[in-house]
Amino acid sequence: MRAPFQESVTAGAGLPVSALSGAVGSGPLIACASIGMGVALCCASAGSPGLRVFGGVLGGALALVLVVFNGTAPL
Predict the structure, then answer these.
(1) For the chain, what is the largest distance between any 2 Cα atoms, rounded to a whole number of angstroms?
(2) Percentage of the chain surpassing pLDDT 70?
(3) Average pLDDT over residues 59-67
(4) Three-state DSSP class for 36?
């Protein structure tokens, strides 16, 4: 049986380095990531439980997308 992280390493090796920055540009990527993280932080600190969960999920998804699709170090 293979280790669970082998599939993710294999999938990550197929992506070019900084694929997201290359596709949309660094400036727009930074702006979108900053706005997304600001929205996530505002929602996560809201009083409504639904908004707090949404903020946490949005922040986690944003971090995951940036790490997977915009890693600057080759695997």
Answers:
(1) 45
(2) 72
(3) 91
(4) helix
Q: What is the residue whose two structure tokens read 């409504």? A: 48
In whole angstroms, give the CA distance from residue 63 to residue 61: 5
**For all residues of the chain together, what is the average pLDDT?**
80
Tokens standing for 13? 């090796």
Q: How far apart are CA 22 and CA 4, in angstroms?
A: 29
Q: What is the pLDDT of residue 51?
A: 93
CA distance 17 to 67: 11
Find the helix packing angle between 49-69 and 26-44, rounded to 10°: 150
Q: Are 32 and 17 in contact (CB under 8 A)?
A: no
